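Weekend entry, working from home. Most of the wet-lab plans are on hold until the incubator is repaired, so I used the time to fold the two sequences that have been sitting in the queue since the last round of cloning. Logging both here for the record. First:
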Amino acid sequence: MSHPQNILFLCSGNSARSILAEALATTLSHGRLIGYSAGAKPTGAVHPMAIELIQSMGYPLEVLRSKSWDEFGCEGAPKMDYIITLCDSAVGEECPYWPGHPSTAHWGFPDPAAVRAGDEAMLHAFKQVEMGLRNRIELLMDLPMDKLDHLELKEQLDSIHQRIKLGE
């Protein structure tokens, strides 16, 4: 790849899963990917456990914020190469227009912030989502992205999720 690829992770609330994915994509790829995140109905706050995990990655906390996906459909927004939904409700939402027709996929994860069995169980759920995202993003980085056409890339993005899901 000659230039960094932009990847947008979508979730309904943009407080946990998509925020984790943004930080992971950016930090794991060492500049090959630039992660972004947004939500259909942003909560307006980043979950404290997501902040805790992201801080340990060395990702700059000051750039984290819960935001609407509308920001990325506007003129002047970064052009996305990939858009990945992370929650089942976001995949069913009517999305804004994405300039450039990015490759899309759905990598569904349960919401770790919805765990109500105590802080320890919630932290475990957050770590499970982080590991699942980490595994998928590492596989994404192994793809010869500049050699795949749009359809092949979409198939590979979908395949990444299915391969790991079967192994979990």
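Second, folded right after the first finished:
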Amino acid sequence: MPWQSVRILVDSKQAEPLSDALMEIGALSVSLEDADAGTIDETPLFGEPDHPTAELWPRSIALVLLDEGADVAATLAAAARQAGIPVPAEYTVEMVAEQDWVRLTQSQFDPIPISPRLWIVPTWHDAPDARAINLKLDPGLAFGTGSHPTTRLCLRWLDDNLKGGETLLDYGCGSGVLAIAAAKLGAARVDGVDIDPQAVAASRDNAALNGVTARFHLPDELAAGQYDVVVANILTNPLKGMAPLLAGRVRPGGRLVLSGILAEQAEDVMAVYRDWFVFDPPAGDEGWVRLAGIKK
């Protein structure tokens, strides 16, 4: 049976009331995403110490799945009335054909070459090179499958720079891919932190799947201490806000690796961290950059 996929532009005050109302009157699913994702107006939601979580993005896209025969205009009007908000003026409708969603999803994720010796391989694929370092990783609820440029940039840095025996902290670990790669590349002790309990659970599962030892925590569970390497693949605004926190986790002479930064934001981020670090030239991939610096 086909469905109707509706994309609705809403502001932060409308997003959650409209989503709740749509589910109550029969929507099959509703999800929210940042309407400005991938632009300089992208607004991260984060909840690190001293940086409270934002309510929602200023402009959101509500993705709504409705039955094939549903009257979209009438459904939106009824939901708006129930939520006590104006009827959304901007939305689009697309028909979604019935498909084998598992096979379709799997077909979109092939093994990803990071370097000649480092690959990310979904569990339903054989490793293209059995002699390589192969990270077993499936797409899931947590960010970090290796397909995004920011993740690839961090993985390449780890591949090029880890010599073995390092201590490493992956701050904002998502799926745990960077921490797991570090462990496979020879890091002696690896910790990961994320504010999302689902990400922490996913990271632990992925570490077990890959047969590596890495510890994953919520922020307030991480013990005090400094590391040889701290990696943070997040977004520009939280990276800037957490500069003292992240800098404090790097030992003198240690390395800091930052990503999730658009090319035009790189100088702003480096300016915030220059009291502590001397940076290498930024490395770029598809408009995103990775910054790497040595602590003074």
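Plan for Monday: verify the second prediction. The chain has two domains: 3-98, 104-295.
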